[in-house]
Amino acid sequence: MKPEKDLGFTLQQVQDIVDEKVGLEELRGMLRLRRAEPETAMAAAGARLIQVEARLRAIESEGHMPTNDVVIRSVPSVRVAELTATAASFEPEEIGPVIGPLYDELFRCLGSAGITPTGPGVAYYEDAPEGGGRISVHAAVQVSAPLQDGTFRIHDLPSLGRAAAIVHRGSMDTVLPTAQALARWIDANDYQSTGYPREINLEFPENRDDWVTELQAPVTRA
Question: Percent helix, strand, coil in the chain (nearest 5)?
Answer without folding.
Answer: 40, 30, 30
